[in-house]
Amino acid sequence: MSLVACISLFLAILSTGGCSESLEKPIIKISGPTMGTQYHISWVSDKRNSLAIDSEKKDIQQRVDTLLVAINKSMSTYDSQSELSLINHRYNSEWQTISDGLYQVLKMAKQVNAQSAKAFDITVGPLVNLWGFGPDKTHDHIPESEKIQKLLTEIGSDALALRQHEEVFQLRLSAPRYMDLSAIAKGYAVDVLGDLLQGQGIEDYLIEVGGEIIAHGMKPKNQFWRIAIEAPNDEGRSVQIIIPLSSMGIATSGDYRNFFEQDGRRFSHTIDGRTGYPVEHELASVSVLHPSVALADAWATALTVVGAEKGLLLAEEFNLAAYFIVRTDNGYQQLSSRQFEQLRLD
């Protein structure tokens, strides 16, 4: 559920090679593994000579890797000893202290859950696994309705309560819940990496984690960072639209890569936690632009769940910049919110 990193980054940093040999400020690039995917970061440096550039590159990469390890240790469901995993597997009905980062992500998740009428729900993981779209990826059959109905009783973010008690962040569960932050944690990682770079005095940068992106400032020669939204093509990769971006994040959710078919029906990996079943509308993908990539990430998932018609209404209600690509009998139709069009005009 993301922008295609290889296309996005290619277009975003196109024609930036060789800057260190010109009068332009150089663009430094780093990348590495994280969260089961990759991160890519580019920034405009004030450094000129190769030794200073190399030193800055190594310093920033070390800081980035350290921060991403900490986020994984807090929010990963693949690490059995992560903060989130311990909460998931050791039900506690009392108030328990959690980290600042986990508190902020859970707070945003509950916000989007409420505003989207529960279309976004971080507790839907058991249903995703039942349908075979979890880590084991066994999607080859439709689950029994009895199993779906049983799991529906174990889903719901209403069981999560949060509070800030003096300087301590706390969580309380009124019922056991399995929380999965995969639809918001990558966006959050992008946000905090942006804060990290700005803390180091870097104002012009592009950050991508698993396809979730933020662009800040400008490239040399006062050029915008250019981001591509992928066309929803089942067979290959192509570009639908290119967006100049600055001081804004973007996240895309789509069902055209991860699905299975049975008896002529297409079953998406996007599960509606309110029904227990995959979404079946004609929305192929939706991209959301927002200063917070975490919120863009969550809202892209929520709008994918509700579909283009209801999603456009939600986008207008909450002033979201959203771009929808919808399947029709004659190809694809593009829809966008007023805020999206305004940002493009700006």
Q: Total number of helical segments?
A: 10
The CATH homology group name of the domain at 83-173 = ApbE-like superfamily
What structural class do the secondary elements suggest?
alpha+beta
Write down how many β-strands occur, each being a DSSP E stretch of 2 or more residues.
17
Strand composition percent = 25-35%
What is the level 1 CATH name of the domain at 83-173? Answer: Mainly Alpha
CATH topology of the domain at 83-173: T-fold
Strand arrangement across the biggest beta sheet: 1-2-6-7-10-15-16-17
User: Given the C-alpha coordinates, what overall shape results?
Assistant: globular
Short characterization:
With 346 residues, this protein is of the alpha+beta class.
